[in-house]
Sequence to fold (358 residues):
Amino acid sequence: MWLLIDAPFQRAVGRFVPKPLPPAKTFDGQTVLIVGASSGIGLAAAVHFATLGANVIITSRVASRGDAAKRHIEEAVGPSYKGTITCMEVDLERYDSCTSFMDKLKSTLGSSATLDVAILSGGIVNSHWEESAEGWERTIQINTIGTTLVGLLLVAWMREGRAERSSPAHLVFLSSREHLYPNLDELTEWSQREGGILRQVCSKENWPGGFWDAEPNYAVSKLMIMHTIEEISRLARGPDGDPLVIVNSVCPGMVKTDIGRLIAVRSWFHELSVWLTLLITAKTAESGSRICVMAALKPKENHGEFFNYFLTNDQYRRHAANILDSDKGRALQKLVWKEIIDELKAHVPELQDSLPTL
Fold:
């Protein structure tokens, strides 16, 4: 509620007035990767980057959806487009899919210096508990663990190309302001139980089952990814402290996509609520995705920062003070990072070779 009170004008403007795009040809000749681009914000961002001259690599979990997305981009940019559009498969739910994707990406591009921008936009909102292929709750697996894995693999590889570039490449995470909403006291209490915070958050026994809990674990998954983005931002810095890769996270605000489809199927009430919420408050994917484009142009001075449509940096830091910057928030961040890294190192040995400081 306090977010609505703090910036009502900015929210209203953001709903109806799209942010401006950079000038034409801004990304001419550059290569942009968008993970999770078969629909929604990722697909809209791919169209923007292609329109601005970039060679675009998109990923999808299912090959047929990736092919359809490629056709959509080609139709949107028209026959005058001189760049290339490439589709790859990756399933953020599976570790082997993430590592296979990175192997194929490296083989396709050759040098890491040729990758200018990577946008990680994959994610889900799940209204019912499901176990992932790797044994965790699916929302946490995809939004947090899988996205962290791909982010780590990318930043390790992109760092290598800095010496061949005139400026750092960009790595942008699609996050959400909902990382400000979880109950820190509850998470702290869970962190002291058997199995640790990750296992407790993913536990079916702790899954809220009430009628009003339409998107359990979504906000927690976004808080945890903010925890790991902070560490990825640290790993992106060189020995002198300057970023070898500029890392940022963004919130596009409420956007009309199908990410809420699993909420809508719960009941007629949820279906109506999703429809009304999107009708009244949501911007288009075309509008919401522009923040990804602009984040890919941020200078190194903005490395590690979170950007959104309706709060200034000062307003955001004030709201984030308790959830992220307090002693309790810092302690939780360290626990989350350790548990996720321990999980990934146990199952993805390539990480230790890529980033020995983990």
Observations:
- Residues 1-5 have pLDDT under 50 and may be disordered.
- Residues 14 and 172 are 20 Å apart (CA to CA).
- The longest helix spans residues 138-160.
- The two ends are 38 Å apart (CA to CA).
